[in-house]
Structure formats: C-alpha cells, structure tokens
C-alpha cells in the first residue's frame, strides 16, 4: 500500500529525503526527474505504472491551491534509473503526453521544504520560480519571434492565432514544428509585427490551450527557420 507521497509505508521517506538533501549530490548524479503535463486526476500509482520497471523511491505530486498542477517530482534509486526515465519523455499517460525533465536539485529541495512546512508548494516555490523565470525572460533580447512549448499535439495555426488574439501576429509566419514523420513536437514559432509586440505577448506565458498550459520563450528568426527546415526534411 502506498502512502500519500507515493512510497510504501514504512520505507522512511522522511529520512530518505533528508539524506538526499544533506548529501548534496552533483547535478549529473541527482536521481530526480520532473514531470509536466500529467492528467489532473493523476495519482501516485499512475506514475509508478508510467515508469514500470524502474526503482522509484518517492513521488511528490505538486498542487496549486489544493488542486493538481499536472507536475510532479520523481525520485529514483540512482542516476542510471534517471537516464532510463528520461527516455520516456513525451510518452502518453492516458490521452496526454508527459514531458520528463532533469531536475535541478534546488527545485526539488524547495518543493520538499514547502511541502514539509504546510504542503504549500504553490504558494512558496512555484511563485518564486515563476517570478524568477519572468524576470530572466525580461532580461533577454527580444526579436519579433516567440517560441511556444508544451502545445497539445493537435494544436493548429488557427488555434495559435486565436491564443494570441489582441496581439499583432503575422498569420503567415506561424509555424507548428513537426518531426520528419509529420508528427507534432508540441512546439511552434510565432512571428509578430514588432519585437515590442512579441515582448507584450509574453503576458500569455503559462496560459492554456486546451488542457495544457503553454510556455513562451524569446527566440530568433534563424532558430525558427532551422526548425521549419528540419520539419520539411
């Protein structure tokens, strides 16, 4: 039987977490990944099934105001398990594809600390990181182009134009990135009339298209052209 944090009762998750935080392992050996795009009704057991065959030590589901955020941290028995887990990036859980990322140890530490205090991960670490991320993006040099990441595979150009309703998008310069086999990657490039308009459109960062929230990043025309060229190969 699993406890509320996805580990077996009696496994000593508290002591395991504390040992991990005290050990301060290097990034390359940190045995944690972060998941994004989980179904909102996802439970610990679903994550265990998703990573079937791997040795999971702990699952920390991230909530926002008491509701599932679609994100989680998963602790594995060792770094080799992490390498295998990363190969499951963009595989499906139900009808949703799940993104699997390496986890910076500070992200995990902050999540654990917030959860240990009041279970208020959203009110602590997420807001801090969101502010930090926004500030970092503000410091970047903007061109007329934004990159979108985390789109539903079914997203099309009209949906993207509608997403940026109220902003001056050049409709002929919206490119949904596809693999050579024609399948969508969940990314797109959007060109605006001016760099300032692209900067203004960053207000849509982390807003949703369908069931998924979308991340926006400043980028260049050159990167957009390279992505379009790869899609045509």
UniProtKB/TrEMBL annotation:
<dbReference type="InterPro" id="IPR035979">
    <property type="entry name" value="RBD_domain_sf"/>
</dbReference>
<dbReference type="InterPro" id="IPR000504">
    <property type="entry name" value="RRM_dom"/>
</dbReference>
<dbReference type="InterPro" id="IPR050666">
    <property type="entry name" value="ESRP"/>
</dbReference>
<keyword id="KW-0694">RNA-binding</keyword>
<protein>
    <recommendedName>
        <fullName>RRM domain-containing protein</fullName>
    </recommendedName>
</protein>
<dbReference type="Pfam" id="PF00076">
    <property type="entry name" value="RRM_1"/>
</dbReference>
<feature type="domain" description="RRM">
    <location>
        <begin position="144"/>
        <end position="221"/>
    </location>
</feature>
<keyword id="KW-0677">Repeat</keyword>
<dbReference type="InterPro" id="IPR012677">
    <property type="entry name" value="Nucleotide-bd_a/b_plait_sf"/>
</dbReference>
């Amino acid at each position: 039987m699993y406890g509320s944090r996805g580990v077996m009762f009696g496994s000593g998750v508290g002591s395991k977490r504390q040992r991990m935080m005290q050990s301060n392992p290097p990034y390359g050996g940190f045995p944690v990944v972060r998941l994004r795009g989980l179904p909102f009704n996802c439970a610990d057991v679903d994550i265990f099934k998703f990573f079937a065959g791997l040795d999971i030590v702990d699952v920390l589901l991230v909530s926002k105001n008491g509701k599932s955020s679609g994100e989680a941290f998963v602790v594995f028995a060792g770094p080799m398990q992490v390498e295998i887990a990363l190969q499951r990036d963009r595989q499906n859980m139900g009808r949703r594809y799940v993104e699997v990322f390496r986890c910076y140890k500070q992200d995990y530490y902050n999540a654990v600390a917030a959860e240990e205090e009041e279970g208020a991960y959203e009110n602590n670490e997420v807001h801090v990181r969101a502010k930090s991320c926004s500030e970092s993006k503000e410091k970047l040099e903007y061109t007329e182009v934004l990159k979108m990441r985390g789109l539903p595979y079914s997203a099309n150009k009209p949906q993207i134009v509608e997403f940026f309703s109220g902003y001056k998008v050049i409709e002929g310069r919206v490119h949904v990135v596809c693999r050579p086999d024609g399948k969508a990657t969940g990314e797109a490039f959007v060109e605006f009339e001016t760099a300032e308009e692209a900067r203004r459109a960053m207000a849509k960062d982390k807003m949703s298209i369908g069931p998924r929230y979308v991340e926006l990043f400043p980028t260049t025309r050159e990167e957009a052209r390279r992505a379009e060229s790869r899609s045509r190969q």
